[in-house]
UniProtKB/TrEMBL annotation:
CDD domains: S4 (cd00165). The keyword Cytoplasm does not apply. The lineage of its organism: Bacteria, Bacillati, Bacillota, Clostridia, Lachnospirales. Keywords: RNA-binding. Coiled coil: none annotated. This is Ribosome-associated protein. It comes from Anaerobium acetethylicum.
Length: 69
C-alpha cells in the first residue's frame, strides 16, 4: 500500500488522487469521484473536496493509498 505524507492538517480527496498518481489531472479526479468509483475508508465518496486526515485510506481502481502524518 502506497502512502501520502501530510504537509498540512489534511489533504483533499482530489489532491490525494493526483499526488498518488491514481489520476492524471484534477478533471480526471472529479469524474472518477462523481461516478462513485472512489472509496474512503471502505465507503463510496462523492465529494472531491472531502478532507482526508492521518489514517484515512483511499481506494480506487484496485489500488489503495494510506494518508499519514
Amino acid at each position: 500500500m502506497e502512502t501520502i505524507k501530510l504537509r498540512d492538517e489534511y489533504i483533499k480527496l482530489g489532491q490525494a488522487l493526483k499526488a498518488a498518481g491514481m489520476v492524471g489531472s484534477g478533471v480526471d479526479a472529479k469524474f472518477v469521484i462523481t461516478d462513485g468509483l472512489v472509496k474512503v475508508n471502505g465507503a463510496v465518496e462523492y465529494q472531491r473536496g472531502k478532507k482526508l486526515y492521518d489514517g484515512d485510506v483511499v481506494s480506487y481502481n484496485g489500488e489503495e493509498v494510506r494518508i499519514i502524518k
